[in-house]
Description:
Helices cover about 30% and strands about 20% of the residues.
Amino acid sequence: MSEEKAKISRRDFFKGAAMGVLGGAALGMGLFSYSPWRKDYLPKVGRKLTDIGTCKSVKVTNISETSWFENSVLMGDIKGAGGLLVNQYSYNWPPFGDGTGLGKGTYESGVGRIRRFLPNNLEEAWAVAEKLAVHPENAGGFACLIELEELDGRTRKFLLDSGWSYKWMDECFKREGIDRMLMNREIEAIIISHEHFDHFWGIPVTYKYDPAITTYIPEGFYPEGLQYLKDAGHKGELIKVKPGLNPIISGLATFVFAVPIICRVYGEQSIYVNVKDHGLVSITGCCHQGIIQFAETAFKEVKYEKDQLFGIYGGLHISPFEDWDPKYDDLVLSLGKYGFQKIGCNHCTGLLCAKKFVEGGYPVVKGTARFRTKETNYLGNGDKIGFGIEV
């Protein structure tokens, strides 16, 4: 658009808003951002349309969405330890507690007290952590099981994340039969979304049942995280995924977003699944890259059925601490433009945000509020969601 045209457009906008006419009022209210007119001012997006193949369906089982049990406790610890930019391994949270108190820990000091127990004697390891760590009772964790049905009917299983608390996650694994699946080598890989405590620190629970499982991590793990994989007992292949698209099997690919994250973590790995005759399903652990970037990346990078962004599942990271800001309403409105046919959200989406999705008429799959999940407006512990298949 020429500079002269831009000046005219801005002049017309402010003139209309000042006059109070309907068009000007709409622009002044911000509705322009969600209108078809907006497209005239944006450059055309080039699409790579990378073919990742197709599958017949995908089912997600929410093993645990309860990353922590009380927001106030978690945020009090973070504030007391120095804030959101402090290295997470220094908080003195379990399992790396060393008894020195909040904000005074180190990875080596903490893991040195439990290393000999990993991964087979997790009860003893957690008992040590409960005595030495800060607020061990608040630790929960996020993990889900992804079951992809191939076009020939074969089922492929993957874990996304392994939670935080050894005690809680082991209970959740046993409740959903994940322990048996791992022991039987039915789950072919675990995909770690990012290095955060509530998604990664429970990794010994996975390795307890299958220490040789292939493990995908996003490139950008810090030395402590890489060492923890070894200390946790991993004996299998470790794949460090570079930023960008990473096809794994037909119909399933991960995408690593090179973004800095709170608590000195870098990079998030999310999942795209292309379901035949339906469209693309986006699966995420926390979506620190943001729901708009997640959806726009799919549009720009991936070729998918019917050119339809069919579904989304995971923590959408809008108001995880229930600290609602008016700008979050823009994100709620923006999500609607992508036309998702099925939405499954959980913990770090935020309880209030999930409620706003429901009130906004979005196709949210509600949960059952079991196993310490707080509300039914989002998918809780033990709940399932299917894309291309009814569950």
